[in-house]
Amino acid sequence: MTALDESIAAGQAGHLTDSDVVHKFINRWKDVKQWGATGDGTTDDSAAISAAISAAGAGGIVWFPKGTYRAANVTVSTSVKLINTYATVKKNANGPIFIIEANGVECHNMILDGEGATHTGVGIQVSTASTDGNDFRFVGGQIMDTASYAIEFSQPDKGLRGLVAHCTLNPTSTSTYGVKFPTNESNGGRTLIGVFCAGGRLVDLDGADDSRVIGCNTTHVAFGADCTKVHLVGNRIANSGITLDVQGTQHAITGNIFAGTTANFTAATRSIVQGNVWPSSTTFTLDSSCQYNLLDVSGESLTVTDNATAGFNTVRHGDGSVTAHLGPQLITGNLELDGDFNHDGSNVGFYGTAPTTKPTVTGSRGANAALASLLTALAGLGLLTDSSS
């Protein structure tokens, strides 16, 4: 419920007059200029912005009227909404522009300029070692020219359920990611929707848990070795080189349009890649540690190299064929195959016999030497016990 909704509800209940409703709502809005900010593009407005945030209090709204504000290292320690109308906040010192230390902070249509040629640091840092910063929202607007990430969720298991949506993120370098997620966490729940990266990289997922990247435009999304449960859905990933490098476990990658012709899977497990659009002649490579993945690689002249030795990866090809690399799997019970079975390995053994290479039968057929050689070969494969004499 918004501040206005709460005020109207109270008025309808008979607790407030119409005038009280209006005043209560207006009092939640704090104009940064009323607290000393100049917006003249040169004055340090950090202290004034901090004062407006403190005055707004939990549930309040801090408004940036038209102007250019200079600020850095502004700590947001209460659940306010920062709202911008035709204003820009430019960094004037090293460090973040805003440090989010409260739950429920929202930024709407904010335009932040990191002045990357002059100042170091991120645009917005979400959470610190001693604060949570959960349910952060950055919706609309733009964060530009930051020497480091535009937004960094810096602490594992904090900054949970964050949302970055319908905005543009473009750090100074196109090789710098717009968003950075934490390392080695058990909770996350963050979502990126409709983010445009202006030819740059979108997000370094690192070790984040339960992340969603939906409908974004970028050149790259980085999977960390410890990241889990990534939903990469409906994105345009326009990198002409390595378009996808999947690590971690339990990912769903579907409905994306890729420009690059190389997709690598490094120790990726229990993930599904299907329903994507790939350029012709794309090469997919699974390393030896990949396990239990399903790849649907329908398309023109696509190549899959499965080096996995650890376990079951299934690949559906454009011609309708399916290949599976079982690895050293133990199957208990009955195994039924409907169709042809093609063994591409070098060794085989049955009934517990150690796998061996394909035997060669020798000797003369007329003198039964060939028969004796065949019996020995079949026994070596474990297909019979040779008790002949």
CATH superfamily of the domain at 29-238: Single-stranded right-handed beta-helix, Pectin lyase-like
Mean pLDDT across the residues is 86
**For the largest beta sheet, what order do the strands appear in spatially?**
1-3-6-9-12-15-18-20-23-26-29-31-33-34
Give me the CATH fold name of the domain at 29-238.
Answer: Pectate Lyase C-like
Strand content: 25-35%
Uncertain regions: pLDDT < 50 for 5+ in a row?
Answer: 10-18
What is the approximate shape? elongated
CATH architectural arrangement of the domain at 29-238: 3 Solenoid
Task: Describe the structure concisely for a colleague.
With 389 residues, the chain is mainly beta. It has helices spanning 3-12, 18-27, 46-56, 369-381; strands spanning 29-31, 40-44, 61-64, 67-71, 74-76, 81-84, 87-91, 98-100, 106-108, 111-113, 124-126, 137-139, 142-144, 151-153, 163-165, 168-170, 177-180, 191-193, 201-204, 209-214, 217-218, 221-222, 228-233, 236-237, 242-246, 252-254, 257-258, 262-265, 272-274, 283-286, 294-296, 303-306, 313-316, 322-325.
